[in-house]
Amino acid sequence: MKTAAQHFIYQNDVLTVDGVPLDKLAAQFGTPLYVYSKTALIEHFHQYADTCKRHETDDIHSLVCYSVKSNSNLAILNILGREGAGFDIVSGGELLRVIAAGCDPRKVIFSGVGKTTEEISLALKHDILCFNVESFAELQRINRIASEMGKKARISFRVNPDVDPKTHPYISTGLKENKFGIPFEEALSCYEQASKMTHIDVTGIDCHIGSQLLDDSPLLEALDKLIGLYDQLAQRNIELQHIDIGGGIGITYDNEEPVAVPEYLSRLFRKIGEWKNANYPGKPLAIMFEPGRSISGNAGLLLTQVQYLKTNSDKHFAIVDAAMNDLMRPSLYEAWHTVLPVVKRNGSALTYDVVGPVCESGDWLARQRKLSIEADDYLAVMSAGAYGMAMASNYNTRGRAAEVLVDNGQVHLIRQRERAEELYALETIVS
Ligand SMILES: *Cc1c(COP(=O)(O)O)cnc(C)c1O
Asked: Per-residue pLDDT tens for 217-257?
């Protein structure tokens, strides 16, 4: 299987994406610029979809629901939709994106702790596959709205299995003290009450324990807990049709070695197959996944241009034209992104902090990197396909970057660079 690294390689000392030199793209479209490889995106999706296919049986089915929040560009959603993906959304806006991208809302699952009345109505109107309900109050709201609309809402509870995913605290979501999901001990009573509601159709159970997991043991531990709950519900005649294990598999940013997706899925399907054959032979069950980062993360990078090189009392800074508003992960999580020169130089290397022009000390993209660079050089900030553009803001009235998709040598602009006029177009002066 190809790794991401093989999609972004040096050819004659120039970094390329699927054969297209990045300095050409930077010159043509300007910087900062997000660049994605369609081939990489599709390969990463098929690591899930193909392994699922191999493990499907007459009564075990699966659906891979791409997490829209990791990268929500319409072109990306459209490509994945055509490959057969469903979608995991966390807002009404993301549902409208899925529809605008030409994808099927009936393959959408809706997660998130704060679904509003408007969002729930919108989702019911479009007949989404399932609400991942995160509180009893939310369940009551869904039941009321569905009743007003004369509909039945399919729901699963997002339970909090209280396993430690051993990842960054900001991206760990399955511990007791997190705001996500319902506590494991309350799940049975929630299901019992839900099963009596007139406009609720209880279809599944789900969890999502965190992000950037390198090891699948916490996920398999969470699966055991979900299976245990499934059994307890079955004893009470509440028969679930699906188990959704969430997303969370990590990627290589630096030298991490995340579990390979096919290996994780094989272990998971083996566990499910053994349990189901022993207890519920012939009973249909769908297994669902909500991967984001492991599909989009290493399918993209952020191109930026060095504006100035500067030395303040022994410390060297490369001031570039991308900033924390373009890629927030370093400021937010102190995340590491590898930084590569687009065209390699032979000169002597210095140790730089790569920083943006935004007026915050937290505005940095990389620290203490040995680089041989000069002003005007282009740099590639790697592994920026997930939670990059999707988290970008307009802080400092900076228009968000343009986005380009490389499709086997063909280059497509998939989002124009924002202009300043667009940023204040919705504002009004009071006289
Ligand atoms: C963010 C999120 C995901 C995707 O997580 P990754 O780590 O990107 O795979 C899946 N499910 C839910 C509910 C999420 O909030």
From this structure: 999 999 999 999 999 999 999 999 999 999 999 999 999 99
Collapsed DSSP state (helix, strand, coil) of residue 180: coil
Q: Which CATH number fits domain 39-293: 3.40.50.970, 3.30.420.10, 3.40.50.1000, 3.20.20.10?
A: 3.20.20.10
Kindly tell me the number of DSSP H helices and DSSP E strands found in the chain.
Answer: 12, 21
The stretches of 56-186 forming alpha helices (DSSP H) are 74-82, 92-100, 117-125, 136-148
CA 183/CA 390 separation, integer angstroms: 29
Residues 6+ apart with CB under 8 A from 186: 136
Fold for 4-38+297-423, please state it.
Lyase, Ornithine Decarboxylase; Chain A, domain 1 (2.40.37)
For 32-52, write each residue's pLDDT tens digit.
999 999 999 999 999 999 999
pTM equals 0.96
Indicate which atom in ligand 1 lies nearest the CA of residue 291: 9
Ligand 1 centroid, distance to 177 Cα (angstroms): 18
Nearest to 59 by CA among 236, 230, 269: 269
Domain boundaries, the chain: 4-38+297-423, 39-293
Phi and psi (nearest 5°) for 153?
-95, 130
Answer whether 206's CB lies under 8 Å from 190's CB: no
Residue 49 is encoded by which pair of tokens? 């979809």
Please answer whether residues 146 and 152 qualify as being in contact, where contact means their C-beta atoms are separated by less than 8 angstroms.
Answer: yes
Report the pocket of ligand 1 as residue ranges, CB < 6 Å: 67, 69-70, 88, 90, 111, 208, 211, 246-248, 290-294, 386
Q: Take residue 325 and report the two structure tokens written for it.
A: 């508003």
